[in-house]
Each structure stands twice: as structure tokens, then as C-alpha cells.
């Protein structure tokens, strides 16, 4: 059962931290979290209870983040097209290929590829069993100390390392199936 009245108290910090690690823009991160809450309110009748409230909100937030990157990349593409044509004279409408700097080194394509890789990696992490995903994120992404994780999750350090190993094995398989073979 959803409890929208408590979303800000229960989930805002978590969603913000999740967003800021992917967007790296404080104001935009706040806006995306706010958009997530609004979208959640609009879609609350579609909540089936198959996931926790937070997991459901994260899935909405992920789509907001992906939409943000698509919008940016689309705007950049349109700007690039406008700049890459001669606008007058005998060559009007032709590509200005000789004007493209060689030093760009495909940075835009690499940026898109990194964004796409991040999306696939996040999907793979989300497909892990909940405890595996939590431990993996805490140790590898958020860089918590082993002792902190063990105390918070009430597990032994040897259990933590077994979980990390299993999570990495499953992630490697998922990434091979969903990223490297595409």
C-alpha cells in the first residue's frame, strides 16, 4: 500500500542521493525527485505492490533520468545539425565536414555510450536479489566500510564477501548478456 503523505520524509534523501550520483547537478536532482513524486501520485493506481514503495519510486526516477539524458542528447543533435551545414553560397545545404575539429575524439558518442552502459548496469543491479543489490551498492558504489555494512545489515564480514562475490558473478553474466553482446 502506498503512503504518499510520507514519501518526502521516507524517500526524498535516498532518491536525491541516487539522482545526484547520476546527474551531478543539485538543482536538477531536486527537480527530478519532485517530478518523480508527482508522477508517482499520478500513477498510484497502477501500483501493484510487487515491489516496495521505494523500489517503485526508484523505477519512476530512473525513467525521469533517462528522459533527461535523451532530451539533452536530442537537443545537442539538433544544434549539431544546424551547425554542420553551409547556410549560403554555392555549397548551401552541404555538410561542413572539413570544419569538424579532429580533437573531439568522439567524446559525444562516448558520453552516450557511458550513459547507456550506466542504464544497463543499473538494470542488472536491480535484477540482483535485494540483499545482494543492497550490499553491492553499499560496498562498491557508496564505498561504505565493511564494518559499517555488517553492522547495518547484521551480517558477518565473511557473509558480506560471499554476497559481494555472488553479486559480481551475477552482474558479470547480466552485463555479458545485455551489454557486451549488443
From TrEMBL:
Keywords: DNA-binding, Sigma factor, Transcription, Transcription regulation. Residues 120-171 form the RNA polymerase sigma factor 70 region 4 type domain. GO terms for molecular function: DNA binding; sigma factor activity. Residues 8-71 form the RNA polymerase sigma-70 region domain. One of its GO terms (biological process) is DNA-templated transcription initiation. The keyword DNA-binding applies. CDD domains: Sigma70_r4. Belongs to the sigma-70 factor family. ECF subfamily. NCBIfam families: sigma70-ECF. This is RNA polymerase sigma-70 factor (ECF subfamily). It comes from Lutibacter oceani. The lineage of its organism: Bacteria, Pseudomonadati, Bacteroidota, Flavobacteriia, Flavobacteriales.
